[in-house]
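ingest -> validate -> predict -> emit
validate: passed (alphabet ok, no gaps, 142 aa)
predict: started
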Amino acid sequence: MKTTVLKSNQVKRSWHKIDLKDQILGRVATQLAFHLMGKNKPLTSPNLDNGDFVIAINADNIKVTGKKLEQKLYQRHSGFPGGFKEFTLKEMMSRDSRKVIEHAVKGMLPKNKLRRPRMRRLKVYIDSKHPYEDQLKTKKVK
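emit:
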């Protein structure tokens, strides 16, 4: 028995389109992170970025359970005195729902040098229109 080791020139990326309409935020974020890391492929390697491109559509129609719309907080700090900002999930969804999904997926990816290139392959759109129809026609659609 021989163990096959994946090399960077053997990486084949496919495209996945995932509809976020009426799906739970955390459950769909794990699915997006799974495809970005390439865990759905038979040959995976933790030191290589062999994930796929993921198009997430209908980001405005994502659902959350419980009282998360009012209670879940997003915090940031500018680094200056008095620069602390705090937003609820409802405020973030009204501003830009794409950032909520990107934040959830980013938190589920490993914290290493491969995180940024993986996040670049995630394309999130508010409605069902996106410019990647040609790639989806030639590649596998899920």
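The chain has a mean pLDDT of 92.
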